[in-house]
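Why does this matter for the project? Reviewers at the last site visit asked to see concrete outputs rather than summary tables. In response, this paragraph embeds two records directly. Each consists of the residue sequence and, immediately after it, the corresponding structure tokens. Nothing has been edited or filtered.
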Amino acid sequence: MSDEHVTQAKEQNSNGDDLPPGWVWTTLADATDPTRQRTNPQDYPHLPFVGMNHIEAHTMKLLGTIPSSEMRSSAEHFWPGDVLYGRLRPYLNKVYCADFEGLASGEFIVFRNVTHLVSRYLQYFLNSWDFVSFTSQVTEGDRPRISFDQMADYPFPLAPLPEQQRIVAAIEAQFTRLDAAKAGLERLAAQLQRYRASVLKAACEGWLVSTEAELAQVEGRDYEDGSSLLARILEERRQKWLVENPRKKYVEPSGPAVDGLPVLPVGWIWATVEQVLTESLSNGRSVPSADEGFPVLRLTALKNGRIDLNERKIGAWTENDAKRYLVEKGDFYVSRGNGSLHLVGRGGLVEHEPDAVAYPDTLVRVRMTDDYDILYLRALWDSNLIRQQIETTARTTAGIYKINQQDIQRIFIPLPPLAEQSRIVAEVERRLSVIDALEAAVAANRMRAGRLRQAILKRAFAGRLV
């Protein structure tokens, strides 16, 4: 390490201040002992084995071990008090201070327990942001690793042994409070998720707002119930088809098998997506990127129930080629495939009038009749009712989960009276806006907790924590 890097590292670790009396600047090479002791795991089948995936990033917690007898490649032997440092990027913040004897992946640098250094003091230093930032910059290669030689000259603030012990105690006391706060945030996040699910469940089952049947009875008036609404939708669909396809036979869309479905409120009826479409489902088109051509959305345009029209690329096709795939306001798009079952079939709505842009083959376009509120469909699409249907019908090929048009057409959805749909949408949006604000606050406080964690370590190794 050059003198310039030494000076810079000292400034990063001390904020430009001198170290407290009794502290000295040294280097990792002088302060630690990273002696390697490679061994064959088959010679120690009784010892636990720690892999890179067994240590949680940032928190330095051990998540588990496996028997060494299951391993075939050579490993590092470690003992209580040794510190394991993950040298493989992006795991440069995976650090663990062992309290048992075992074997570790060769992707760890094992720092031996030495008498002049409290192991946890070293552990926290290796996990501090300044050090992680430095090691992240000096790694190279397809699977970049850092060697000890690359970090050997890194400046290390060495406190007197009793003070190291006090610093470790203070760090852990602060981290305990942060962990408690973080656990509280996690509980709140889980509660908000459950509440979100309950709101969507209520929207599906008809107990979120007063039903149209209840209001009509109180007000002494008639109303168009779901059965009548569906009959009108199907007749309008039939008439449109006959006008546009006079020489073709009309096929009535299939309804849902109602056996086993939840009981709906008075005035509601079950329908399939196919029954309430204004036109057939349509896949987009796969288009390679180009410097010149016509814009097409990326799959990443689908975000949190919305279509981000800025997520696009230039495709190698003309405006005329893209004409049948143009995006319109009110279109609803469904993801055809994803490596995660949780994400396949997610939907997004085009909320604003778009400029000229097409949609890709990774999305299916859904255009609904005006008698089915598209905002209501968007609210339903993230409910457990819809997710269960999608996830049970999705097929996996080469690790990718996929659904097709037939799967989407057969999804059954509740059909309330039109006026009730609008009231449900308004109530869903009101409640979800509160949930969104609370979730944003939780996320901000999670990030703040992470920053506080690093601020504590920075103060600790500048000699200002105790």
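We now turn to the second protein, recorded in exactly the same manner.
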Amino acid sequence: MKIEMPIRKKGRHSKALIEENKKRKALFCEALIEIQSTLDFKISSRGWCYQLEDLAGLSKSDFDVAQNLINECRKNGMLPLNFTAHDEARALQGGSTYTDEETPEEYVKYQVEQIMGTYKHYNPKCLQDFHNYGIVVMVEKIDLVGLFAPVCERYNVPIFNARGWSDINSRGDLLVEMLKFLEQKKICLVLYCGDHDPAGLNISDMLPKNLKDVEQAVAVDSSLIRVERFGLDYDFIEQNHLSWIDNLDTSNPDTPSLDNPKHPDHTKPYVQDYLKRFGVRKCEANSLVVRHEAGRQLLTDTLSQYISDEQLFE
């Protein structure tokens, strides 16, 4: 499917151009909805930029424009409000709760129906009981949560989005989860997947230290937890033709690019080593949404090193 982007011109527009743009926006939204119907997971507005790069030839310089367009269409109703992946960390919590049933009898009937179906989810055994590893999958971007969810469900391993450098609460929660595995005498693994850029590689390198920083609060020896980065790496990016971005800009628009000597981290070893090995370019983990089958296979291949097919409940 070839997607035509809406017209983008500065200044005043003629009535004909405005009408033409409305039609293009409508077709643009229809195309996105059709593509979404072929996917079994939702992606972020940033992830959609990679889809548009692949299908509409969107340039990297127009990623911000495309993100704004998608969000504009969500706001004006041309796309569903919940069209993109939802960050659970920002979900509403608490407040009053209402039921759809108008009478107490209807409410009780609904609850009974729900209870009668719960036997389908009864599972007195856990896959973790049948192998020697306690595994948690950790990702840097929300897109990877939806992408990897079916694989994690199959292997019965938890996954969470660290959103870059995880906060103290997230690291504490991770150690609490690992403590359960340690108590069962299991080998503990954190499998990490993030951006291929100086910060993304540095996050996985620094994760053992970041866990050690909070180990006293959880009363666990973090040195017993192994961290393995399974993506993204250079070979996987090249083999699957993932998209490189030809800059090392950071999320802060007021900060110079990492390749600029004026950036405070420019002279740090992790930045200089990256520049020598890969140059001034990066690959975001979001790009996996365009090669989602390869992405899921990457995680499957990683998990299968520790959990055999014979140990799966299927």
